[in-house]
Write a structure and sequence with these properties.
The chain is an all-alpha fold. It is built from 9 helices and 2 strands, in the order αββαααααααα.
Length: 249
Amino acid sequence: MTAGQQPPPRRAVSRRAVLFSGGGLAVGAAATGTAWAATGSPSPPADPPAIPPDDDLMREHGVLKRVLLCYREMIARAQSGGQLSAVHLQDSALVIHDYIEGFHEGLEEGYVFPRLLRAGQLTATVTTLLTQHARGRVITQFILANATAGQLASPGMTARLAAAMQAFDRMYEPHEAREDTVVFPAFRQIVPPAELADLGQYFADLERQQFGKDEFTAMVERVAGIENELGIYDLNQFTPQVSQYAPPQ
């Protein structure tokens, strides 16, 4: 793919089956009983067993964190007067659109948040997280609509895209940290262990049904490719020199 080309459109995952039952957010019994009815019954348990649902969601957060690092690198380049690549920006935003917003957030909104709301736990936090999901999708759509070679030729649009990435980063770093340290532990406490195991398998089955493969591994490889293109894949480059902090001899 050349620098001027846009990547081919990705197959977005419908959120409707997850989020809506009778026109409303899948809350209560609808969240666990009918939200994904359109996908069919889960397949028999895999060998080895699927990881717990909260652990699965947290590793998907790892994919998001790596895209946020790609965004941060592109923000720095734009702010220093460098040229952004439409391909890098489009592909980064598509990972968020296809996998995080199109699948991961659907699981949170269909299964995790409703259980907490029914239990009367973290209701204000869940409301804020839902608002942030919606706002993040608006930002992602803006990036996808404007991250083209023609638009990036304009310094004004480059600045607006950098600001959009910065707003997304600023929101999602505390967003996912709060989910990992508060929301998911609370969810694990109120869901019986046997149900957690079943739900972990169900999440794995849904991923196969939606994507037809191990999409987590595919997304990790896809993000690693973007990191390589941006020159930020090598983990060692982030190791600081600490001689200035060492005690005097």
